[in-house]
Amino acid sequence: MKSRSVFVCQECGYRSLKWLGKCPSCGAWGSLVEELVEVERSSARGNASSPVLLGETPTLPAQRIRSGIDEFDRVMGGGIVPGSVTVIGGDPGVGKSTLMLTLCGALADHKPLYVTGEESLEQLRYRAERLHLTRQEVAVLSEQCLEDILATLESYTPGLVVVDSIQTLYTRQMESLPGSIGQVRTCAGQLVQWAKRTGRPVFLVGHVTKEGVLAGPKVLEHMVDVTIQFEGEGNYAYRILRATKNRYGSTNEIGVFEMRNEGLVAVPNPSAVFLTHRLHSEPGTAVSAILEGTRSLLVEIQALVVPSGYGIAQRIATGFDTKRLQMLLAVLERRLGMEFSHTDVFLNIAGGLAVRDPGVDLAVCAAVISSLRNSPLAEKAVAIGEVGLTGELRQVAGMDMRLKEAEKLGFTFAVVPPSVQAIASSSIRIEVAQHLGTAVEKLLL
After folding, report:
1. pLDDT tens-digit series, residues 245-293
2. Adjacent-strand bridge partners of 386
3. Are the C-beta atoms of 351 and 299 separated by less than 8 Å?
4. 413 and which of 99, 130, 184, 381 could share a cystine (Cβ 3.0–4.6 Å)?
């Protein structure tokens, strides 16, 4: 077995036989680090394996491990699948370690093991005391060497393992520093093999880059079964747990948590939380219903249109796609004859929530027009619908679920696009509009 030297980009995993100042793949400067890789010559003939019919293959255990944290179980697809490997990513300080420690406390009867490579045991105990977990049967280990961790797993035989974080581990088989591409790939691969062999679930906490994507090799996301992102801003107490990959469930579900002094608390009714500070209808505000998996949420859209003090008008959006906002403003200018070339438009989704559902288009347009005219929308009104480039309103999925959520929170009036199926509601007055102009006139007082 021979070894050769290669240069590996620490951002994207690109390999080169010589050192380069700039990575040709991702464009990062100074990211190529030399690593020694072993080259094994393959034998002339391999060993034959016996294929198995698909219907005769063993099935996964039908019983999932439910943590009792409903928001977490929802994102995981109803619980944790035995033998699965999950990577959780998020910005520093968002609460990844707190969430994993809370999970271990909730599954204390499953003999969890929390492996930390970033904190000492004294620091971990301080965090556990704040979360009131010191009385729980949660085993902890402060270790960074992969071989020592695997030996501990074989002797202790935990029912669930959390590694915080995968970027701090290293293996003695490689000479590179912890967190490098080769170290992360090798350590994660060994832990994946252990999970599949023993049937015990493993959670890997991962760092993210400045762009918000999971740090390390892209192959890491392909090796694991579930990839979840923990989103949130430091100025807001609410956190969103979202699955970007799930082999055993939907990737459309989200879980909502609130960060308190005693730790993370699941929020069973997010709509009421996001509308807590909404007293009554004000100019520039509108309410819409979004769909996240099998859950409908009500969100408040806030818009502010003011004369521009600069040569170029500003378009700033928080929690909403800025390019989509520019498209909707262009539709308002062309189809409704409004003028925004000399005004700044600011848009905000209250509560720090990031919205990608096109069903809020109508509410965004209504909030912008309401601010421009300084006229509030109808009280207890909700606007749902996608806006096309010709100004027509298009149907969105899950309209019944959206209206039921609005009805549950006391809304009495809804403007929606034409639907193929009849929409029935007991207490909400439904107005159907085919064009954006008609819908806005129905919403404005």
Report:
1. 999 988 888 899 998 888 899 988 888 888 877 767 889 999 999 998 7
2. 394
3. yes
4. 381
Q: Residue 295: which of 252, 257, 259 has the closest Cα?
A: 252
pLDDT averaged over every residue in the chain: 89
Q: Which residues contact 211 (CB under 8 A, 6 or more apart)?
A: none
User: 3-class DSSP state for residue 422?
Assistant: coil
Instruction: Name the nearest CA neighbour of 381 among 296, 293, 278, 295.
Output: 278
Q: Which CATH number describes the domain made up of 273-443?
A: 3.30.230.10
Strands 343-349 and 315-318, sheet pairing: parallel
Distance in angstroms (rounded) separating the CA atoms of residues 299 and 364: 11
Contact 76, 40 (CB under 8 A): no
Find out whether 392 and 435 touch, Cβ atoms under 8 Å.
Answer: yes
The region, left, alpha or beta by phi > 0 then psi within -120 to 50, assigned to residue 79 is left
Distance of CA 182 to the CA centre of its chain: 26
Closest to 253 measured CA to CA, from 72, 88, 86, 63? 72
CA distance 179 to 173: 14
Which amino acid is it at 242?
A: R
What 3-state class would DSSP assign to 163? strand
Residues in CB range of 350: below 8 A, 6 or more apart? 274, 275, 277, 278, 299, 300, 301, 302
Question: Considering only 31-35, 196-200, 215-219, 415-419, which range has the smallest mean pLDDT?
Answer: 215-219
Rounded to whole angstroms, the Cα distance separating 403 from 146 reads 52
CATH fold of the domain at 64-268 = Rossmann fold (3.40.50)
Answer whether 68's CB lies under 8 Å from 102's CB: no
Strand 254-260 relative to strand 160-164: parallel, antiparallel, unpaired?
A: unpaired
User: Of 18, 48, 47, whose CA–CA distance to 33 is shortest?
Assistant: 18
* Number of Cβ atoms within 10 Å of the Cβ of 5: 11
Copy the structure tokens of residue 253. Answer: 């579900």
DSSP classification of residue 317? E
- pLDDT tens, residue by residue, 23-64: 998 888 888 888 877 666 655 577 788 898 888 877 766 689
Residues belonging to the chain: 445
pLDDT recorded at residue 157: 94
Its pTM stands at 0.80
Q: Which of 37-41, 300-304, 438-442 comes out lowest in average pLDDT? A: 37-41
- Asked if residues 200 and 150 have their Cβ atoms less than 8 Å apart, the reply is no
